[in-house]
């Protein structure tokens, strides 16, 4: 076994000090109340990862507004003061167990498949996402064609992210992560086949990243200096696993350099395999490109379950933090197990069936 000490070294991300380099990746668990408030079950769920040794927890996607932001039924929100107060129990439990926690703010856009506020969706253009809605998130059938978002609605979205970030700050979160990945609204603007706009938000990569950059800057300007701000970026989507940026490394440079100049504190990349070349059969990973062009600390996610693979991202300088998803679901105490050289469990598929919510027995195991 190689020296895993780099995984356990502290790191500063903006104003937030992490005690180690292992994070919980955001995972949709649709276990809030129907009104979008965090529950005692969610408190126990997140607390278990903090007790298990994860230095940073990033929440599941939280919808930021009471309009088009929600993506799933029983998804938690932070669109109201009541919802923000409910998150206080999660934050308190995580802090009491020694970890930091960032709120991931997510606007679903055209990829919404369950919204209690509206019956329609919006996207950069009137183009439906590829593929089918996800059954284990209570969806069914193809995604509908969204209405093209207006400039007035874009301002509403921008202000929704800002207001949600301020509520997250008031609830005690250490930081916020803006969701610009996996096919949700900000990623739809980044995506050439979903963004057919002819204004300053469409066309070139510099134009397509503009909306995400504006929101990053607005959130960074709004929250105080003690709150970290970052953005999650991917190529693949919930409904299009094989998508790659058509502009290759040049497009990556345009996206990451623009985001890096907004004043945010980190970038979080997620790919099917974080270590794989971003484009073609060779070359740097998406995380490495993000680090090269943004100049910011990078969190990397994607099949980093094996400790040696996770370590390689740090040793190669491709990332500063590794984020675990399914490996964390299988091992709530992954950091503790790895530090003690204990065996790791495989993921029990029943965790995600028939619906990918938090199960009673799952809490008992924690």
Number of domains: 1
Number of helices: 12
Looking at CATH, which topology would you report? TIM Barrel
- Total E-strand runs: 12
CATH homologous superfamily assignment: Aldolase class I
User: Into which percentage range does the β-strand content fall?
Assistant: 15-25%
Q: Can you give the helix content as a percent range?
A: 25-40%
| SS-derived structural category | alpha/beta
Strand order of the largest sheet: 3-4-5-8-9-10-11-12
Give the tags:
366 residues; alpha/beta; TIM Barrel; eight-stranded parallel barrel; two-stranded antiparallel sheet
Quick rundown:
The protein has 366 residues and is α/β, with parallel strands linked by helices. 33% of the residues lie in helices and 16% in strands. The model has no long low-confidence stretch (mean pLDDT 97).
Explained architecture:
It is a single chain. The protein has 366 residues and is of the alpha/beta class. It is built from twelve helices and twelve strands. It has one domain (5-365): Alpha-Beta Barrel (TIM Barrel). The protein has an eight-stranded parallel β-barrel, surrounded by six helices. Strands 1-2 form a two-stranded antiparallel sheet. The protein has a two-stranded parallel sheet with strand order 6-7. Strand 10 (266-270), helix 8 and strand 11 form a beta-alpha-beta unit. Helix 3 packs parallel to helix 6. The longest helix has 20 residues, at 151-170.
């Amino acid at each position: 076994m190689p020296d895993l000490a780099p995984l356990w070294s502290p790191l500063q991300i903006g104003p937030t000090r992490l005690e180690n380099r292992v994070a919980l990746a955001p995972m949709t668990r649709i276990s809030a109340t129907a009104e979008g408030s965090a529950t005692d079950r969610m408190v126990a769920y997140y607390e278990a990862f903090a007790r298990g040794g994860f230095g940073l927890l990033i929440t599941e996607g939280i919808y930021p507004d009471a309009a088009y932001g929600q993506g799933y039924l029983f998804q938690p929100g932070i669109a109201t003061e009541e919802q923000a107060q409910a998150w206080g129990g999660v934050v308190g439990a995580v802090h009491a167990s020694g970890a930091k926690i960032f709120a991931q703010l997510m606007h679903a856009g055209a990829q919404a498949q369950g919204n209690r506020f509206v019956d329609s969706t919006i996207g950069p253009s009137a183009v439906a996402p590829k593929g089918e809605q996800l059954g284990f998130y209570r969806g069914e059938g193809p995604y509908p064609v969204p209405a093209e978002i207006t400039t007035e609605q874009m301002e509403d979205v921008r202000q929704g992210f800002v207001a949600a970030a301020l509520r997250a700050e008031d609830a005690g979160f250490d930081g916020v992560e803006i969701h610009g990945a996996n096919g949700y609204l900000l990623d739809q603007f980044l995506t050439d086949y979903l963004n057919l706009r002819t204004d300053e938000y469409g066309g070139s990569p510099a134009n397509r990243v503009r909306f995400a950059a504006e929101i990053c800057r607005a959130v960074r300007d709004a929250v105080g200096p003690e709150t970290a701000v970052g953005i999650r970026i991917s190529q693949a989507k919930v409904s299009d696993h094989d998508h790659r940026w058509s502009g290759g490394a040049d497009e990556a440079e345009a996206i990451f350099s623009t985001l890096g100049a907004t004043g945010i504190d980190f970038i979080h990349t997620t790919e099917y395999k974080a270590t794989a070349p971003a484009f073609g059969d060779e070359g740097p990973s998406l995380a490495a490109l993000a680090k090269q062009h943004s100049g910011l600390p990078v969190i990397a996610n994607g099949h980093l379950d094996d400790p040696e693979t996770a370590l390689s991202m740090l040793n190669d300088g491709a990332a500063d933090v590794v984020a675990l998803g399914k490996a964390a679901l299988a091992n709530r105490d992954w950091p503790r197990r790895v530090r003690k050289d204990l065996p790791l469990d495989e993921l029990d598929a029943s965790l995600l069936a028939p619906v990918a919510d938090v199960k009673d027995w799952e809490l008992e195991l924690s």
